[in-house]
Amino acid sequence: MKEAVHKVIFLPSQRTVTAKRGEILLDVLRRESQPVSAVCGGRGNCGKCKVLLDEGSEAFPPTLTEARLLTRDEIAAGYRLSCQFKVMTDVRVKTEDPKVDSAVSKPSLPKIMIREISPQFRLEEFSLSKPDIHDQASDYSRLISALVTERPRIDRLNLLRNLPRIIREMDYRGRAVMYGSEVIDILPFSDESGIFGTAIDIGTTTLAVYLADLKSGEILAVRSAPNPQSSYGQDVISRIDYTMKRDKGVDELRAAVLTTLNKLIDDLCRESEVSNERIYDTSIVGNTTMIHILLGISPERIASSPFIPAFTGGKVFESRELDLEESIPNSKIYIMPGISAYVGSDITAGILSSGFVEDSGNVLLVDIGTNGEMALKRGGLIFACSTAAGPAFEGGNISQGTIARPGAVDHVWLNGRDIGFSTVNGSKATGICGSGLIDAIAVMIGAGILTESGRIKGEYFELEGPAGIVRINKRDIREVQLAKAAIRAGVSVLMDRAGIETRDIDRILLAGAFGNYIDPENALRIGMLPNVPVERVLPVGNAAGLGAVLAVLDSGIRERAENLSGSICYVELSGRKDFNEIFVDNLALREG
Length: 592
Ligand code: FES
Description:
Layout: E1 5-11, E2 16-20, H1 25-31, E3 50-55, H2 64-69, H3 72-77, E4 79-81, E5 91-94, H4 102-105, E6 121-127, H5 139-146, H6 157-169, E7 173-179, E8 182-188, E9 196-202, E10 206-213, E11 219-226, H7 236-245, H8 249-272, E12 279-286, H9 288-294, H10 300-303, E13 315-318, E14 332-335, H11 345-353, E15 363-367, E16 371-378, E17 381-388, E18 408-415, E19 418-423, E20 431-432, H12 434-446, E21 460-465, E22 468-473, H13 474-498, E23 507-511, H14 512-517, H15 520-525, E24 537-539, H16 543-553, H17 556-567, E25 569-570, H18 579-585
Parallel strand pairs: 1-5, 9-12, 12-14, 15-23, 17-25, 18-20, 23-24
Antiparallel strand pairs: 1-2, 3-4, 3-5, 6-7, 7-8, 9-10, 10-11, 13-14, 15-16, 16-17, 18-19, 21-22
Helix pairs in contact: 7-8, 11-16, 11-17, 13-18
This protein binds FE2/S2 (inorganic) cluster.
C-alpha cells in the first residue's frame, strides 16, 4: 500500500515539500533547513520550537506538553510546538524569517595585527623548454624539473588531467601555486587575479567566515549566520545525543552546517568579486564536537567518561574530502589543533590571536558560550578547562531568551530610579540576549528588586519601554545563576591549579561575540568573573575567528598552535571531588 503523504507549505515563501503522514513537524523543518530553535533537542522541555500554523493545526490536537509550554492565547492563535506536532493533513507553517538581518550577518571587519604575511602558499614562476623529437620528457617531468622548490610534485589528479592542455595554452610559461612542495594549481604568467584564503569559526550557536587576501593580508569581508544545528539542540551534549539516537544523525548535522558554510562563502566571494577557484587555503576552528561532526566523525565518546575524542591535533585535508568543493574547489583545509574533548581549537586560536601569550602577566581568557571554555596563564604555564554554562547566555532556557538579533534587549541600565533598555538595531523588543540579561540582573540587584541570593519580589520583573515589554521570571534568574556559577567555578579551579588569587590576575580577556557586548562592570557585579578592577577586563572580539584568519595568513602560526596545544595543561572538572561545593559557593549574585 502506498504511504500517505501530505503537503507542508512554508510561509511566506510558499515553498512546498511533502511529509509522511504522522511525521514530526520538527523533523520536516530540520530536513528542509527551515530556521527553528530546538534548545532541548525535541524533548518537549524548552518550548522554543514554536511555529505558527496557518492551516492544518486542527487535525492533530495540542498535546499535554503543548498545553504546559504554550499559553492558551498562543494555542488559540495557531501556535504549536514543532517537536510535538504530527503532520496528519496538509499544513501551512510560518517559521521565523530565514533571512538573517544584514547587520548581524555582516559583522564589522576586525583589525588584525600581523608582523609578516607568510601564507602556506607561494607562487613560483616557471618557463619550460618546448618538447621536440630529441626531448621527449613528459609534461609532468618538464614542469617538475623547472621548479626551484625541492622535490616538487602534483598529487591532484584533476590537475594532472589538465596539465597537457594548460601548459600548451600558456605557451609553456606560467606560475605554479605551491603548497609546501605540492603544486596545487597553475596560473597564467600574467594573471593578476590574486590568491585568497578563508577562515571559518564553527561556534555552537554561530558560524563566522572570513575572506582574506593572501598577498596583502587584508580581511576583505566577513559573514556570519546562526548555526543551523541549533534545530537539533542548543548545546553540544544534545547534539551528540541526537547523533547517537539516529542512524544518520552525524550526516544530518553535518549536512546542515555544510549547506550554510557553502552559502556564506559564496556570498563572501560575490560581495568581494573574488572567484571561488582562487581560494587556496582555509583554516577551520571550533569546539571539539563541532569539528568531529564537520569531519563526519562520531562524537559519541566525547559525551561520556573518560571523554575521549577521536583526535585533537592539527590536520590538513582537501576541500572535497569535507564536501566543501562546491564553494572552495581548490582549497586545502587546515583544521587547527584542539586540546581535549571539551577545550577545542577555538581556544587554541583565541590564545594565539588575543595577545594572551605575549602578555607578561597572569592572564585569564574566557570564552563564554554554552560551554564556558577558559585558559589561565601563570608564568610559562597555561591551564585550561571547560564548564557546562548551558545556553542561558545565548537565549536558551530563558523564557524570552534569544540570540543577539534585531529586537533583542542587549543593554539595561539604571538612571536614577528609572530603568532603561536598548534593543539590537533599535527594533521592537522581542526577547532578551545574554548581555541584556547580565545587565538586567545587575540593575535589579542595584534597584533592590532582586536579592543576591536570587530572590525576586513577585513572579517576574518587567522591562517596559517605548520598544516594548520583556519579562524576566524566577526561573530565568535561576538559569543565569547556574550559568554564571558554572563559569566562576571553572575559573576558581584554574586559579587553584595555577596557585594564584584574584589580586594576582593582571588581565581578563573576554572572547566571543558575547564577550564583546557584555558590560564588564555588571559581569563583575554579579560575580561571573573574579573581582578585579574593571580596567583589567578587556573584550577581545571573536578571538577564535581571528586566530583562524592568522592561520591562513601566517604559516608560522600552525607550528605555534601545535606546540601550544601540546603544552597546555587540561584540567578535568569532573575529576574534582569538590567541584559541586565550589559551584554552589558561586551561586550568589555578588562580587567575589
Ligand atoms: S520543546 Fe520542542 S524542542 Fe524543546
